[in-house]
Amino acid sequence: MAAIGAVLVALFVLTGLLAPLLAPYDPSLINVQKTLQQPNRTHLLGTDNQGRDLLSRIIYGARMSLLVSLASVGFGAIVGIAYGTIAGYYPRLDGPLMRLNEVLLAFPGIIVALTIVSILGRGTENVIVAIAIVQVPQYVRLAHGLTLSVKERVFVEAAVAIGAADRAILSRHILPNLLAPLIVQTSLLIPGAIMTAATLSFLGLGVQPPTPEWGAMLQNSLQWARLAPHVMIIPGFALMLVVFGFNVLGDGLRDALDPRLRRMSGPGASGPGG
Amino acid sequence: MGAYIARRVLGSIPVLLLVVTGVFFAFQLIPSDPARAYLGPEATLETVEALRKELGLDKPMIVQYFNYLRRLTRGDLGKSISTRRLVVTELGSPFVNTIKLSIASIVLATVLGVLLGTIAAVRQGTLWDHVASVIALLGISIPVFWLGLLMMYFFSVQLHVLPSAGDYTWKHYFMPTVALAVFSLAFIARMTRSSLLEVIRQDYVRTARAKGLPEWAVVAYHALRNALLPVVIVVGLRFGYMLGGAVVTEQVFAWPGLGRLLVGAVGARDIPLVQGILLVFAASFVLVNMTVDLLYGFLDPQIRYR
User: Fold this and answer.
1) B105-156 confidence digits (pLDDT tens)
2) What is the pTM of this model?
3) Reported ipTM
4) Which residues does chain A have within 8 Å of residue B152's beta carbon, measured at their own beta carbons?
5) Helix ranges (DSSP H) in chain A
6) Nearest-by-CA chain A residue for B29
7) Shortest Cα distance from A183 to chain B (angstroms)?
8) Residue A221 touches partner B, C-beta closer than 8 Å
9) Which of A106, A111, A262 shows the shortest C-beta gap to B286?
């Protein structure tokens, strides 16, 4: 199963990276004479209500999802790991920092994302920031737990005993030992980021038209579904396939690399969940 | 037991206070003036100032914060910028509608999730297990809004057997309940499977089999009762997330709940209404978490005496 996940993820990443080479048409090119066409030889997945090629929009939608998910998870990871590691390493900071983290964990991810968007406004950059903030508490919780565990190990004690500076201990001894579980966590959080971005766009608060994005493509699809159900089925299927691939891959990585992670990461949602 | 309950209740108060403070100061980060953002660029300075004064935005931030806390203790969440009505009044009916939908969904998710997880665990390694695992994985992968759209397309647009919007009869409940339940169902199934697999290898389960009990009785009376303890926590947490996470489901099915109200308030930049909704979500989630803690303490005597 993990192999299937890996293939799906690889296809998604390659599609996103090579979108300008793979897309047969400009995804924003409007052609009012070719609206709501069924899949055919000219347009392999058909066209939407503005005559735009659906395959090209799906390919560029993958590119947008890749950009948003990698950027948001990247920022979230950097901030969350730093925060969680410091909280775990310094006992005096542990309590106050983790109580603050609990405040963010008190809300479902989509609510946090909506709040951030209501403060910052709509648009791709603000979606990235919003999703990054949603990811931070997940990384904090994991990095904190792992740091508490690793700092008790003999090699860290030895480093302290020889007088190594805290920064050196954190960067050379603790952080490298967090890598494997954090990589697994990242693979589990990326699908959540993709889903949250699509959800925000579906609600009209994320990536704005005419930029291709799977959630935005689904936003008005029901009104055209009677004439052309493919405009609703194809973007949603693409989204589900990618998220499924990441979930399967993440499960496989978790089983292979770090069984501890199953206990530590807890029943956190990997998606908006509602 | 009383001391345990008191500890849990008192422990929730600082979290609530932090949430209230976080919600208040988060909205102070808005770069634009909320009154100007609502009234638009054409509004005169006098109109904007009048609205700022009406909403108390002309006072220093720290004064606004303490006024906000004082009003909260009286149950006053301020006034909605768009309707000028009290936020508490705006929230009442949508909150009840969200609760109704969440309860229906969590019941469905729990019943089917536990069933699916039990089948997967008892038939571990067989085709049943693989099918159940794939169903669970699909459940956590399928976008809720897409599932909702697909159901509306088939049941409302094509077959005309279910209404696509509203909240009047059981038929209106069916699609939103299923859409909202799927993710949690998958989660609960995976947790049930994992938990039951751990319990089913215990000595007391082996003893029950050795006594000659049929397999269904071993699973139902001995294994499942203990395996469900961590599942109770997951169900409780999922219910808490559902209250807030029903945003998308309510938007797809035009369900008149808090989630749909929140999306509208965010779109209209109605900050007092957004703040009020967030507080209700947070308070509900803290209350649900506390209830889950208490329930777990009730079910597991070892927890009570810690």
Assistant:
1) 999 999 999 999 999 988 888 898 888 888 888 998 999 999 999 999 889 8
2) 0.83
3) 0.84
4) 222
5) 2-17, 19-22, 54-89, 91-105, 109-120, 124-150, 154-161, 166-168, 175-202, 214-219, 222-225, 230-257, 260-264
6) A119
7) 20
8) yes
9) A106
